[in-house]
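All the exercises in this workshop are built on plain-text protein records. The record below serves as our worked example for the rest of this section.
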Amino acid sequence: MASASAFPAGLRLPAHKSEALAPAIAIAPAPSQAIVSLDQGSGRAALPCVEAGERVRVGTAIGIDPETRNRVLHAPVAGVIRAVEPRVSATGTGHGLCVVIDNDGTGDRDPALEPIDDAERMPAPQWIECLANSGVVGLGGAAFPTAVKLAAALAREATHLVLNGAECEPWICCDDALMRARAPRILLGARLLLRASGAGHCTIAVEDDKPEAIAALKAAFSSQPDERITIRAVPAVYPAGAERQLLTTITGIEVPSGSVPSQSGLLCQNVGTAAAVADFAVTGEPCIRRIVTINGSGVVRPGNLDALIGTPIAELMAHCGGYRGTPERLIAGGPLTGRALPDDGIGLTKAMNCLVAASTLDLAPRGAEMPCIRCGNCANVCPAGLLPQQLQRSAQAGELEQAGAWGLLDCIECACCDYVCPSRIPLTQRFCEAKSALAAREERLRRAGDARWRFERHQARLQADAEAERRAFDEARRRARNDGAS
């Protein structure tokens, strides 16, 4: 096991993971009612392909991709569709369309679900097509469709696959628990992802403070040796698991700004995604469950649950002993990058790797914002190599183009700068707002450009019609003169 190169910048933070890792992964019971959001956390909503009153089985498609028409969302339980309606959700707007399924308790499985025994021998395009209908997405939190990433990697002849087991944010430990308990499935998933992407080598990156996970992977590797796969430790520094930073740490290749990893011959997938790919091949069951960490001082028994997508958060908390008092905040994700949820009636999504029931013991008051003192702490810890103080000045002044020039879109929103700012400036929030404003501005410019193009085309057509009419008139007059002369 090779040692990783030093990770640039970042923070060493208290992990807060040992209590949740103490018990084994528990299987959460199926919910009596599944609430499946059509936006599973990627920001892109599927189109419902079922209606209220319709009966579905486990694995039946209930949502399709609006462009490709692939089956991307599946019923986690068997039962009757109670409603397809807007509900409170974990999306950016706080509301989204959800498919609500009343579980009939039969567990009937869709007969179309069959194992894919020849997945390791299947041609890559055919295997990617199968995965496109499996609903497997990035389970590290982004929920980006795995098949799309694989297709891009195959088209650009990627050479190196990195499986991300560098679970660096405090409180989150679902990947650590997965690697300890199901390492053989991760290795099978690595081989299947190599098959689909065409890459020749895979590195499984694990933080060096996870010796149990590393030992489990090495033990599985000894029984399933594959010269294409290596296991490598990376420093336990936040955010070592950020995609671009991890790829640079492992390969030494820096993905250029404005580019994607596949353009540099690289592909990064989460270890949970690899296990989900393997589960799909072995069982034929689409991505209808994930492991989620339940943590924080506000829950009685922290732990990791293997839970069905759509299970209400309240039921997951109840399975872990319920709340200890009244939590100060319920957070989907980690304390630095997570999103506060309005209530616990929201269904589990594929993007939710952790749910933190945070009490006042976990959350220090932010305090009043003060002027920037130009200390440079934010720049020292920024893993993307940016100058947050300059970004802040441009964002505050509404100078979006200048903020873009300072690398606004390269900000990975890790909140390291927030954490070390002595002036308590909400830098990450400002950068997110500036990104949204910049995207809205670019959309307005695009629409204006489209409108200008349509106007100019219309004017050109009018001019061409007028010119054609003038030529026809001149020709008619010329013929009339010639007829009169004869």
User: Anything to note?
Assistant: Residues 149 and 267 are 8 Å apart (CA to CA). The radius of gyration is 27 Å. Residues 2-29+113-290 form a domain with the Rossmann fold fold (CATH 3.40.50.11540). The chain has 14 helices and 18 strands.
